[in-house]
Amino acid sequence: MQITRDAQTVATLLIVETEEEPRDLRARNKQTTRQAISTAALRLAVEQGPAGLKLVRVADIASAAGVSPRTYNNYFSSREEAICAVHADQARRLGRTLLARPAGEPLAEAVAASVVECFATPEPDRVGLAMIMSASELQGEALKAFTMAEEPLAAALAERTGAGPRDDLACQVMAGAIAAAVRVAGQYWLGTTERVAFADVLREALRYAVPAEHPGGS
Amino acid sequence: MQITRDAQTVATLLIVETEEEPRDLRARNKQTTRQAISTAALRLAVEQGPAGLKLVRVADIASAAGVSPRTYNNYFSSREEAICAVHADQARRLGRTLLARPAGEPLAEAVAASVVECFATPEPDRVGLAMIMSASELQGEALKAFTMAEEPLAAALAERTGAGPRDDLACQVMAGAIAAAVRVAGQYWLGTTERVAFADVLREALRYAVPAEHPGGS
DNA sequence: GCCCAAACATGCGTGACGCGCATATAGTGC
DNA sequence: GCACTATATGCGCGTCACGCATGTTTGGGC
Questions:
Q1: What tens digit of pLDDT does each residue of B150-161 get?
Q2: Is the CB of A5 under 7 A from strand C?
Q3: Distance (Å, rounded) from C-alpha A171 to C-alpha B35?
Q4: Which single residue of A131, A213, B82, B110 could bond B41 by disulfide (Cβ 3.0 to 4.6 Å)?
């Protein structure tokens, strides 16, 4: 094996991706420290502002989270990943949330409700969001976070619409469009000075992303 | 000034972003070395495959491009950026290409033609594309590359549809949806074993991303 | 054709980071 | 309780991004 990615990191990612509410005490602790690290990273980043992002040292994040720098690196392999982890986890929930909507609900309505539930409940922190979406060093990781929503979302869309395997492409494109709408809505909302509810911007943006007819019915 | 980003790098980025065909010999040379570095980076990455990406050292890229490692760093601040630069430049052209389409053409047709012209002419290299889109280390930068198309694309959409400033959100969402469609089409095309033309996959994907009615007309 | 200022390429040094390896410790199944 | 496994941490190495200083090329005014 030439490139052996850190075994502990891999294990962490696998668990986080598959399980949501671990019964195991070990896994619970891991999720706790993971959240501690990511929230500490985000907090420190916000304190420094987008300009001084590079002043946030790994050692600072680790000590703020109460772990050793090496442990920090067992969970995240870059500052950017740690800072954006919160939003990545948020995005990952979208597919599941959509599946939990009542079955009879129209697709556009269900999607809008799920998105609002995942991203606008509660109203996101303007400063934190601005940090993540404006700092150029974080752009890549932020986009990865939004993109993580797409795969489960596409699966959920396929399930809901009863789309056959030949509609895979359609579902994936729609999932991508929805994720893009959420992202654009975020930027738009950050640019507004008036006190608009993020949920309203989201619904408006989604109007342009979700067609009236679903993949299975056209 | 606390964080002084490398002045030379900034100058490079500005020129590249604003000018497309520099008349100045200096700028021409810069673009040449820039392309030399990025193509060398992509070539070496392809040679090693997605697994051995980290074996591609900066020194290798620099020597393959015939420049010093320090010069490499004047143009790109990470391997990933260098590897994805080709596709980023490609994506940046999309807005301009759309504006060059005949004025009478229906929107969906014009968009499809522009996308095909930018991304499927000539048929992209399967291996190179697979490298960029599958290697997890490159995901962030690859997403940034696709996202770069959105801003000029949204402007071009607004111009073409005669959308007013109140339709900004709609145009941005549509641009995001188009970019997502291109990305998804790329993944889909890479997964196909049959020899399907990438252009066909693109057109199919765009059918789900571009609504029949444009923002200004709904 | 010549000279000068600006732009550019390169060398060197520094601070930080990612991560493999080894070890101490805490949680788990029997 | 005990053996076992997963996790936290310390240490060290190789690599990288980038500021600074310097040599080299380019373009323009005369």
A1: 999 999 999 998
A2: yes
A3: 36
A4: B82
Vertex B91: Cα angle to B75 and B159 (nearest 5)? 125
**pLDDT of A1 strictly over 80:** no
CA distance B164 to B157: 11
Q: Angle at the Cα of A209 (from A208 to A215), degrees rounded to 5?
A: 125
pLDDT digits (tens, 9 = 90+) for B49-82: 888 899 999 999 999 999 999 999 999 999 999 9
Distances (CA, A) of B54 to A141, B98, B128, B140: 19, 37, 16, 16
Give which of A22, A18, A69, A19 is closest to A41, Cα–Cα.
A69
Q: Is residue B181 within 8 Å of B208, Cβ to Cβ?
A: yes
- The verdict on a CB contact (< 8 Å) between A180 and B177 is yes
Question: Per this entry, what is the length of chain B?
Answer: 218
Whether residue B153 contacts residue B178, with contact meaning beta carbons closer than 8 Å, is answered with: yes
In this complex, the answer to whether residue B68 has its CB under 7 A from any atom of chain C, a nucleic strand, is: yes
Question: CB-based contacts with strand D under 7 Å?
Answer: A 8, 11, 15, 26-27, 29-30, 33, 66-71, 74; B 3-7, 9, 24-26, 29, 57-59, 69-70, 73, 77-79
Neighbouring residues of B146: CB distance < 8 A, sequence distance ≥ 6: B87, B91, B179, B180, B182, B183
